[in-house]
Amino acid sequence: MSWNAEEFESRLRRVGEERYHHLHPFNLRMHDGTLTRAEIQIWVRNRYYYQTRIPIKDGLILAKAQDPDFRREWIQRIYDHDGHRAGEGGLELWLALGEAVGLDRADVASLVEILPGVRRACDDYVEFVDSHDLLESVASSLTEMFAGDIMTTRIAAFEQHYPWVRTEGLEYFRTRTVQAPRDASQGLAFVVEHARTAEDQKRCVAALERKCQILWNLLDGVEASSAHPQLSPHAIWREDPQEGTLVVLPERAVKINPTGREILNLCDGTRSSLDVTAILKERHPEISGIGSDIHDFLDEMRRLGVTQYAK
Amino acid sequence: MNVPRPFNLVAELTYRCPLRCVYCSNPIEYSEFREDLDAPTWTRVFSEAADLGVLHVGLTGGEPSLREDLEEIVQGAASAQLYPHLVTAGNTLSAERLAALCDEGLKSVQLSIQDSQREASDRIAGVTAFDEKLRFAQAVKELGLPLSLNVPLHRDNLSRVEELISLAHSLGAHRIELANTQYHGWALLNRGALLPSKSQLRAADTAVAEGRRRFPDLEILFVLPDYYSDRPKPCMGGWAQKNIVIPPHGVVLPCHAAGEITGLEFWKVTEHSLADCWARSPGMNAYRGQAWLPEPCRSCPDRERDFGGCRCQAFALTGDSGATDPACSLSPQHEIVLEARRLAESEQDRTLIHRGPSRVATGS
Q1: Which residues from B are below 8 Å from A250, CB to CB?
Q2: What's the DSSP call for residue B353?
Q3: CATH of A229-309, one of 2.50.20.10, 1.10.10.1150, 3.40.50.620, 3.40.640.10
Q4: Across the interface, do A250 and B148 touch by the CB < 8 Å criterion?
Q5: From the centroid of its chain, how far is CA B243?
Q6: pLDDT given at position A55
Q7: CA B30, CA B245: separation in Å to the nearest integer?
Q8: Of B83, B85, B216, which is closest to A236 when you measure between CB atoms?
């Protein structure tokens, strides 16, 4: 049995209440005013990668739609982000936010040093939309239903707790308080109209859950940079005559080259990933792009269980 | 011949076990085997294994905690600089004894679970053990040891993959191995009752993908049954390539089931050095490398990946351990596997036979 429109909408809204990233510890701290300047900067820098994926995602959705009315309305989202001419639109406003929090505009725009967890989450979103049908793709965009509120909270939090951020930098958030609810009502109307069977409705709920998970993972990726990695207590160093330096763990052994060893030696649980990166940048000014490599390496080491985060 | 380096040793300390699982991979006639290796002998074997390049040792069985000298064996493994890993059913090992093993150098624990639900788990195990297993898992975490779960999958528990993943997460496991039963030993006797249908496997695959999304920090290993894949599995990373298995009577094997193959001569660690057992015994060299491969494997590009499949399965299903694994769709005897799959889709008697000294059907 399919749900009626009202019940279906309330199921979708419940997904947001339970899983939207307004509940993520990083956002809770942002809105409590307890993030450091460095943490705000790392968030703004990394979230820009998400912003750049949005018009690409919307292009994919346009390409799936048969209905000119739908396309005419949906294309507005691309203009919202890219503007009608250079120097306008949401991406531009985000770069202005970057400047307002003290980042270099060109540096942010170049997308260097995007944290691996953030990159994965954003790429997951584009991949999801690419590989699912129009209905699920639109349903996944319905996090916009919850975006208006979080933007309002965010503006107030920034004005109250982070006065060092110039107020004109918050213009992106202000425009989204208007755009997000408008976009959400288009998306919601489409989904309610086109998800007719119980199975379609469940696919929509699952797509929205998936999108919430992606936004959640994005913030996990941001938090990884301020986490304090340390060698797993279950790891044992071994000098192997054939393989060189190994870390032996349950179920696996991982080969570590001298550079890796140098990075891991700094992971003593007192330094954040950003601290480790800063030290190594200073030590090896000749290596360009070292920051990304270190973040990728630390991400891989955590995935393999070589390191864990200090409590 | 170039002798490869073994990385892993599986020490089957005993075939005794409080559980009577219907898919046990121990030999059917396991009660005929004696436990010939005492703790000092195991200690010598561990030290020789380390010299060969082995990094990990899995202490398993049967149920390894039924050995009263397990503490001494763990100490032997740790003093040889191996990484000792205990594979246990959990229900016969107290928190106190586990702590003592930890003091001797035990580094990690794998707990076998038969199902996410008490009745179903105990039914497969043939004994009441589920609650004790959960208590044991808690004891492992309280000691700060890494915990992995191992759950053999079959047609009666495949629908609970999602629950099993949640259970692993709630027990604080860092890894769960969801391996579809391999049809050796008791599992082959019970294949008709255990082999799942294709639709069950598809649903489980979806549940695993969802589990990976929900619990990104939980490592989920999902091994499909080779009966449903087009090509055989690269069993043990190739015959006598990376793994050494030593059952309780001390014969050095390339895998836990190879002792079932008749006509192969393997050597015992009580009569030869481990290095000789590994490098020179006729059984170890029988299927090492590619020279022995029959057609269609010999000219198949996939031989580099699957090495012709599992020798024990070839022997169990065709009577010839040198045949292409019938799991491969290119095997001339693939029909054997297709027939088993057809039976899995049909109604049939699904009585289970529990592991035990005699083969008594205990009903399902």
Answers
A1: 83, 85, 107-108, 146, 148, 174-175
A2: B
A3: 1.10.10.1150
A4: yes
A5: 12
A6: 97
A7: 16
A8: B83
Where does chain A hold its CATH 1.20.910.10 domain(s)?
Answer: 5-226
> Does B206 touch chain A if contact means CB atoms closer than 8 Å?
no
**Tens digit of each residue's pLDDT (9 = 90 or more) over B241-262:** 999 999 999 999 999 889 889 9
Q: Does B56 touch chain A (CB under 8 A)?
A: yes
The answer to whether residue B175 neighbours chain A at the CB level (below 8 Å) is: yes
Report residue B361's pLDDT band, with 50, 70 and 90 as the boundaries: low
DSSP A235-274: -EEEEETTTEEEEEETTEEEE--HHHHHHHHH-BSSS-HH
Angstrom distances, CA of residue B231 to CA of A226, B7, B84, B301: 45, 25, 33, 12
Tokens linked to A18: 């339970």
Domain with CATH 1.10.10.1150 in chain A: 229-309
Any CB–CB contact under 8 A between A213 and chain B? yes
Distance from CA of B320 to the nearest CA of A (A): 32
Q: Does B359 touch chain A (CB under 8 A)?
A: no
Q: Is the confidence at residue B363, as pLDDT, over 60? A: no
Collect all residues of chain A within an 8 Å Cβ-Cβ radius of residue B174. 250, 305
Q: Which residue has the tokens 């590619």?
A: B290
Contact assignment for A250 to B144 by CB distance below 8 Å: no
Question: In terms of C-beta density within 10 A (0-12 exposed, 13-18 middle, 19 or more buried), how is residue B280 classed?
Answer: middle
The architecture of the domain spanning A5-226 is Up-down Bundle (1.20)
Residue A80: the pLDDT is 95
Instruction: State pTM to two decimals.
Output: 0.82
Contacts of A217 in chain B (CB under 8 A): 216
pLDDT in tens, B125-154: 888 999 999 999 999 999 999 999 999 999
Reading the block at residue B74, the tokens are 């763990």
